[in-house]
Amino acid sequence: MHDEQSLIRRAQQHDEMALTQLYEENFDRIYRYIVLKIGDRTEAEDMTQQVFLNVLKSISSYKWQGMPFTSWLYRIAHNQIVDHLRKKSRRTMVPLDESIPAIGGDPEHLAVRRVEIEELTIAAKKLTAAQQEVISLRFAAELSVAEVASVMGKSEGAVKALQHSAIIALRKVLSPGGGV
Description:
Elements: H1 2-12, H2 16-38, H3 41-58, H4 69-90, H5 107-124, H6 129-140, H7 145-152, H8 156-174
Helix pairs in contact: 1-2, 2-3, 2-4, 2-6, 3-4, 4-7, 5-8, 6-8, 7-8
């Protein structure tokens, strides 16, 4: 924790190395969290970049409160997602054709993987909003239970209960004859 505090202090003083380190350590996790929530990789890349631009703009106002920096970072990402979904509901979108084959890799494996991801995405939409958030933060963003509790403003027990019920619900939906 002390190393993180020092890194953030340096970032608040606009130390490029500290800012770069925060970006590199957190970009992939924030991206995975956003892509799981919105389902569009290209849009998620743009939104993740915007999250880090927002961090850059407001890092000087960040106040250490004993919680990991990532809690603050995920709150910014969450707000970005909410804004995106609000704007998206006001306009109609036509998804791009994703049938362009991926370069490299076994085509059969890629096709099976794409189907599995699609089934999981459909199944996750059957969860409550809170369950979806817990699953996104725990598994896509790879946060600890304590970090998820901080981001969501819930107790660790509540997060564990949500995660447990979400996993049970996903198992039911994804089991043979479960409804996906």
